[in-house]
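Teaching assistant here, posting this on the class forum so everyone can see the example we discussed in section. The complex has two components, and the goal was to see what a joint structure prediction looks like when all of them are supplied at once.
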Amino acid sequence: MSRLFMFEKPLGMRDTLPELYEKKQRVRSLMEDAIKQWGYQFIETPTLEYYETVGTASAILDPELFKLLDKDGHTLVLRPDMTAPIARVAASRLLENDLPLRLAYAGNVYRAQQREGGRPAEFEQIGVEYINDDTVSSDGEVIALLVSSLKKAGLNQFQVSVGHIGFAQELFMQILGTNGRATALRRFLYEKNFVGYREQVNSYSLSSIDKQRLLQLLELRGGDEVIGKALDIIEDGFGKESLIQLKELWEVITDYGLKDFVKFDFTIVSHMSYYSGILFEAYAGNVGFPIGNGGRYGLIEKFGKKASATGFAVRLDKLLEAMGSQEVVNTVECIFFSQERRKEAFQLAETMKAEGKKTVLQDINGVKNLDAFTKNFANTTFLIGGA
Amino acid sequence: MNAKLTIAMPKGRIFEEALELLRKAGYTLPPEFDDSRKLILDVEAEDMRFILAKPMDVATYVEHGVADVGIAGKDVLLEEERDVYELLDLRISACYLAVAGLPGTKMNDVAPKVATKYPNVAAAYFREQGEQVEIIKLNGSIELAPLIGLADRIVDIVSTGRTLVENGLVEYERIKDVTSRLIVNPVSYRIKDDRINELVARLTRVVSLEVK
């Protein structure tokens, strides 16, 4: 192993310097305010969890987990997402009286990176979990809250693509009959490999009508007209339930007045087994990766309570990237003082702070390069020498 | 939001075939395109920008979203495993990945070695065969490796097989057929859906005509 430089950090770990901190803080509090306005309650959970519980329940794949041992030999993980810890808390503490639960969080999560070491392995997520309500209204609320919190944060151009994990699955089962074959096709969607999907479909001995139905799935994206097209490729029963849900969801989103931000995409498979219903991803035009995602999941059952939930998580770093460079206006003022007028300076500083001004008190003798130092402040006052 | 489309094109062999395909699909691309040394070419008439990249890097540009779409060989996609949509088999630049070596030789029992430009593909292939081999990554002239005793086998793309023959090598196993694919950034796929749908439809038409 090569010798470390003294300034080095573990791969994928980053410092947040003051300017970026300010920007993050600003966007975080705008998002948090928006989420609180919808009545969601923020909670915190530990950074370390057991691998056996939260680690294996999480949607994040095993190779991405940071693992370590505690002194008794239990494997621990640095939490790879916030949903699994919240599911643990909800199942054990909060779901006692079987009521809908609206929780929110802002916290750092940890995912070891496989390639290109500079990618962040620790990053902040802001999100909500709406637990123990399986109405489409709750799916709609979470999507509407995602849209309106992103708008509140100052993001103007973005889109949420919505799919349903059940539709493709039922179409596959109806045509292919076996779980193995359905999983094979779902994996191609998950890997975003449409060429492989088409080759696989063509390799099955199916009627040309059935092949067409499977191939048409890839075209199912756009506005609410897509639901009509989806109805054409399924037969009675199978897949209807998911279409009824999506149709209702569209009405919910329309009633929120947010349908310009939402599109359907039936090919979204964000995870091979985690999601159980409506799912979605959020995109901003100038960032190559999704800025957030979410959907309905059955995770809470792994922690021993029968409850379905939905939620979203936004990556704060991607959101900041999407918002582009924003000027942070420096409003800090500085009072330079010398011993003779120290008391006067302190009194002035008190007055200024009381007025809400950020004020630095600086002993003039402590600064070697006065010109360079004064540039850091919006305004300066000198109270030095005999009055 | 369906603004200018940026396309990452692979320099070299695939470039000309890809260009021909785009022209057949009805895109008007200026003639100076073919022998330009510029790395960025704007085509205002089509509201498109082309960036010319090393074939191995095309998928990287697309994954990061600096290019909305790209044309990349399946070999590159297998090796790089980038998070991009593989939308269409363009059926150009057909070749295949193969294992080759000197004729009549066996893998070294003590220290079997494989030289390749595709370490991930090679490692996965030999692991599936249950063989433990040492993978040696080279950046070109892979055929040299068995000739001078660096490796027993090579994993490389073969199109006509001439390079192998000229260097006295033979093919042992065929790993995977390779053609060029149209790849798309997942965000662009959703945000610039109208433009990408159109591109895919026009290319699909050309590709299916070629096959018949």
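For the discussion questions: Chain B has two domains: 5-93+179-211, 95-176. The longest strand of chain B covers residues 170-178. Think about how each of these relates to the inputs above.
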